[in-house]
Amino acid sequence: MSPTHDRRIRPRRLRSTPAMRRLVTEVRLHPGDLVLPLFVKEGLTEPVAIASMPGVLQHTRASLREAVREAADAGLAGVMLFGVPLVRDAVGSGATDPDGILNVAIADAVEAAGGRLVVMADLCLDEFTDHGHCGVLTPGPGGEPVVDNDATLERYVDMALAQARAGAHLLGLSGMMDDQTAAVRDALDDAGFHDVAVLAYAAKYASVFYGPFRDAVESTLQGDRKSYQMDPANRREAGREVALDVAQGADVVMVKPALPYLDVLADVAATSPVPVAAYQVSGEYAMIEAAAANGWIDRRRAIEESVLAIRRAGADLVLTYWAAELAGWLTAPAAPAAPAALVAP
Ligand code: PBG
């Protein structure tokens, strides 16, 4: 008798009751594995709703502090801050201004967190440049503007120092410039910021799923990011990007987006010597919210299953706009046991 035909082997046995399923569950969600991205806009007096991300706000400095306190109360691992400036220019001056919105918000968040969670900051120029690119532009061979890698690194270094001085615990390098991790790590160390950690968006794809985020930060992007973010067709290349970031001193590497890239995430998780994060991005959020709003999907179960799938594929940390709400569900008192009639015979 072949073992595959052995009727003594019955996988359903381990699915027969809620208690039995709990005994053998492989992956669990925990607030300590979740990071909440937050937007803060310069000059706001009231928080503003983001139309394409229902439930997500552009915060004022005061409401951001409150959101950070709530994130800490919920037991989240951290917050990731994005700034929306009022004025933009070609080199993204607001990003390196100590009084720029992101830098003042970092200091606000660090104070509000009181050491209870990790304050992370997005390190990229796209929110601060008038052309919306993640770096500074230079004329290309045919006179068309291209993003200048090495000139951009100089801006990232200054931005990293401004964020470190503001008290950020971890810098999220999301620009996809070559050598950005080494440039920022060296600058931090030379300035004595040895304990400021670097999360490298190692495998960041040129994805349509960032669409709602661009509303959230009022992006002015002209063109696309395909000359620096990765081609969605490429899986092997993610390994190369991760290896480079790890060699350059990345403390954490990230895969982004998450759900459409679980194969990449699983590859990275299997080989990375450093912790792996995944970013469930704005478009992933918007799809589930829109389907739920139409009554086409069970919102809570879709959120739980999507984040669970990202953890199962190997992410140690998940950045998700649902982090606080999900943490609330996870820590709520357990639901009463299912009535006997619902338990499988
Ligand atoms: C760059 C950045 C982006 C996102 C996070 N960091 C936008 C982009 O690369 O175009 C997208 C996050 C999301 O869609 O939720 N600052």
TrEMBL record:
Taxonomy, superkingdom: Bacteria
GO biological process: protoporphyrinogen IX biosynthetic process
GO CC term, one of those recorded: cytosol
Binding site for Mg(2+): 241
Enzyme Commission identifier(s): 4.2.1.24
Similarity annotation: Belongs to the ALAD family.
Function: Catalyzes an early step in the biosynthesis of tetrapyrroles. Binds two molecules of 5-aminolevulinate per subunit, each at a distinct site, and catalyzes their condensation to form porphobilinogen.
Record's protein name: Delta-aminolevulinic acid dehydratase
